[in-house]
Amino acid sequence: MSLQEIADRLEIEQLLVRYCHAIDERDWAAYRAVYTADAVIDDVTAGPGNSVDDMVTFLSRALERVVVIQHAISTSRVDIDGDTARAKTVCHCPVVLDRGNGEARMFFQGLWYEDQLVRTADGWRIARRAETGYFHDMPSDFSFE
């Protein structure tokens, strides 16, 4: 690998990590910063074709009953072609729900992020994200919608 490819791979890896921390910490400015301004997000629970602003609105509401959420990514396959790249990344995500009356319940979800990335003046950003292969053991009476 060239030094440029090594640098690109490290930057993309950190971009994906920043995404996870942004959601887990509900830091919507940091969340916005991982995407291009015109990014399109196909989210399993929010549906296809969302903008970044759509997702901030959805996630802010969806996470109201979530006490703790922890996105853990691994096994990224990244293919770089000049100023564009594709990445497919595994995500496992435990979620602790507030069930009311001091009761909490944990469930797990897993999925793949399939990303199209672009190099911008501010570094690599996600231009399109699709969540695929979603599985979970979420309580039947809970929904992120």
TrEMBL record:
InterPro entries: NTF2-like_dom_sf (IPR032710), SnoaL-like (IPR037401). It comes from the Bacteria. The lineage of its organism: Bacteria, Bacillati, Actinomycetota, Actinomycetes, Jiangellales. Pfam families: SnoaL_4. This is Nuclear transport factor 2 family protein. Residues 4-129 form the SnoaL-like domain.
